[in-house]
Specification:
With 86 residues, this protein is an all-beta fold. Helices cover 0% and strands 35% of the residues.
């Protein structure tokens, strides 16, 4: 998957994922396509930014960019993260 990360106010999600979600830890909330089961988008904490109180991480939306109409994900710039060594 190729994920794009956005602030909640930057995106409008139009999907039917009702009953197709998974929140194992209560922190991350993942949505899946009701037809094929593909992971479509998630709500996750943005650990790099805190909310207005300064006590909790801000929220971000992770979108599976391969699923966007009219977007050629193959030409988007990609930042590769190495979570093990960073």
């Amino acid at each position: 998957m190729l994920w794009g990360y956005f602030k909640p106010e930057e995106v409008v999600i139009q999907s039917n994922t009702e009953g197709r979600d998974y929140a194992p830890s209560g922190i991350n909330h993942h949505r899946f396509c009701s037809k094929c089961g593909c992971s479509t988008w998630s709500e996750t904490p943005d650990w790099t930014e805190m909310d207005a109180t300064g006590e909790n991480p801000a929220q971000r939306i992770a979108v599976n960019l391969w699923l966007l109409d009219g977007v050629d994900a193959r030409v988007l710039p990609v930042e590769t993260l190495d979570g093990l060594n960073q």
